[in-house]
Amino acid sequence: MTHDYKELEISYGDDALLLVIAAGFLERLLSRRPIEQFLATGHLEVLETFRGVIAAVSLEAPPAAA
Q1: Residue 2 pLDDT > 60
Q2: Count of Cβ atoms closer than 10 Å to residue 10 Cβ
Q3: Cα–Cα distance between 15 and 12 in angstroms, integer?
Q4: How far apart are CA 11 and CA 13, in angstroms?
Q5: At how many degrees (to 10) do helices 33-42 and 44-60 cross?
Q6: For residues 23 and 50, what is the distance between their CA atoms, to the nearest angstrom?
Q7: How far is Cα 4 from Cα 11, in angstroms, rounded to an integer?
Q8: CA distance 44 to 42
Q9: What is the pLDDT of residues 34-65, one digit of tens each?
Q10: Centroid of chain to Cα 11
Q11: Which candidate, 1, 27, 57, 61, has a CA 20 to 30 Å from the CA of 47?
Q12: What angle do CA 58, 63, 66 make, to 5 degrees?
């Protein structure tokens, strides 16, 4: 049982990093108006999923130092 926990702990950092990178890419992608409009007109479910990923990652981010 402890072995499984250690494997999970090791892979968590890599998975979290990949998620942050993917969310950053999606945010840049959606910042391009023509791409966002294309998704909004024909692929709304994909657009909402992308926005959900971006929002989830931004909620997990630690607060910025003041």
Answers
A1: yes
A2: 9
A3: 5
A4: 6
A5: 120
A6: 8
A7: 11
A8: 6
A9: 999 999 999 999 999 999 999 999 887 665 54
A10: 17
A11: 61
A12: 140
Extract the tokens encoding 47. Answer: 């657009």
Q: Which amino acid is at 12?
A: Y
Evaluate if residue 66 carries a pLDDT over 60: no
Two structure tokens written together for 18: 């990949």
Residues 6+ apart with CB under 8 A from 47: 30, 36, 39, 40
Q: What is the pTM of this model?
A: 0.74
Structure tokens, 55:
């929002």
Among the listed residues 1, 50, 5, 56, the one whose alpha carbon sits nearest the alpha carbon of residue 26 = 50
User: What residue type is assigned to position 24 of the chain?
Assistant: G
The amino acid present at 32, given as its one-letter code, is R
